[in-house]
Amino acid sequence: MKLSARAHSIEPFHALAIGQAAAGMESAGQRVIKLSIGEPDFGAPAAVREAMRTVMDGRPLPYTPALGISELREAIANFYLNRHGVIVDPARIAITSGASAALLLALAATTDVGDEVLMADPSYPCNREMVNAFGGVVRLAPTSPATRYQLSVEALLDTWTDATNAVMIASPSNPTGTSIEPTELAAMCQIARERNAWRIVDEIYLDLADDAADGSTAQTVLAHDPDAIVISSFSKYFSMTGWRLGWAVLPEELVEVFERMSMHYFLCASAPVQFAALAAFSPEALAECESRKVELLERRTLVLATLEGSRLQVHAIPDGAFYIYIDVSATGLDSWTFCERALAEAHVALTPGRDFATETADTHVRLSYAASREDLIEACRRLSEFVATLPEVRA
Ligand SMILES: Cc1ncc(COP(=O)(O)O)c(C=O)c1O
């Protein structure tokens, strides 16, 4: 029997090979420090876990409405108001099985065969595969340390073609942990809007972005572009990766489309998880998430301090999420070999750039600092010992 062309062309997660090798080493009794993992190490807030215990009291838990339970849509709208100062009509919020389902629905709703979707190189790998799944064409915009490996107005204009139908942006980004300045983001959105293109803005790491210098919270794109398609999730800020719950804030014209598509593709997101997630907005849970954000910032500071001056170079200091995108070219190794050898010799797992990028595929690795401080200190020590074994590279 034949497989679809899509099945043949879907890329593997290269990090998987590193993960499998790490698992093999661990089962052989070695202590591997995994800084390759894109999820917080805290687990769901205590109030959410408690709420889940209550929800699982034997009640029947039928399907929910396709766009989610109204209480949760309202709670998210309140969160936008209280945290970000923007008014969002709960009717424009669609609850999904993680940001992944929201991204898939956004692309399903907007992409026809041949439509181009513009995004930064590097960016979150699944976006490319989701665009491909709908016959869209990925257009990667080059980035550089000057734009902190993020999309910029200049790169957007240079990469734009008549077929550009959507721009996908993540701020802060995976794998770089860097954000786009609000004015730059607003300008890009305005250009795209004027050219009749969708703006799909992934804010999954927004609440893990550093506060502005004046102490204000990082701004949502909705403050500038209320009709952007905004993607978010309980996975990162609320540390609920395995719970599989996210949302999209939609422009009016997409709400009914999303509802139909959600119904056909998913019926609804998990009912018990939706009910339990209401507790994520309780004052205790929010306080817990805020203190974790502070902890992540301290871990970042710790890792950056150890990397400073080493051959593991950080050209763009992150300001959010829990990633550092590191240029390893001064070690003389390409990033894939670096990851393989760092695992084999230092027992530290990292993610190679080829999962995210074309331009920096062979030069960069992603380090996730969502690990205990103790592990981070030990990993940095091991990495620095490993790098010291590598011959100096002549410029
Ligand atoms: C930028 C970005 N968007 C979306 C996702 C998917 O998240 P979720 O767990 O909510 O499906 C991830 C996960 O790592 C991510 O990094």
Compact description:
It contains 13 helices and 12 strands. The chain has 395 residues and is of the alpha/beta class.
Overview of the molecule:
It is built from 13 helices and twelve strands. The model has no long low-confidence stretch (mean pLDDT 96). It is globular. It folds into two domains: 143 residues, Aspartate Aminotransferase, domain 1, CATH 3.90.1150; 236 residues, 3-Layer(aba) Sandwich (Aspartate Aminotransferase, domain 2), CATH 3.40.640.10. Helices cover 41% and strands 13% of the residues. Strand 3, helix 6 and strand 4 form a beta-alpha-beta unit. The protein is α/β, with parallel strands linked by helices and 395 residues long. The strands form three sheets. A seven-stranded mixed β-sheet has the order 2-8-7-6-5-3-4, sandwiched between helices. It has a three-stranded antiparallel β-sheet with strand order 9-12-11. Strands 1-10 form a two-stranded parallel ribbon. Pyridoxal-5'-phosphate (PLP) binds next to helix 5. The site of pyridoxal-5'-phosphate has 13 residues, from helix 5.
Itemize the secondary structure elements and their pairings.
Layout: H1 5-9, H2 14-27, E1 33-34, H3 46-55, H4 70-84, E2 93-96, H5 98-110, E3 116-121, H6 125-133, E4 137-142, H7 153-159, E5 164-170, H8 182-194, E6 198-202, E7 229-233, E8 246-249, H9 252-265, H10 271-277, H11 283-307, E9 323-327, H12 335-346, E10 348-349, E11 351-352, E12 364-368, H13 373-388
Parallel strand pairs: 1-10, 3-4, 3-5, 5-6, 6-7
Antiparallel strand pairs: 2-8, 7-8, 9-12, 11-12
The structure holds pyridoxal-5'-phosphate (PLP).
Pyridoxal-5'-phosphate (PLP) binds next to helix 5.
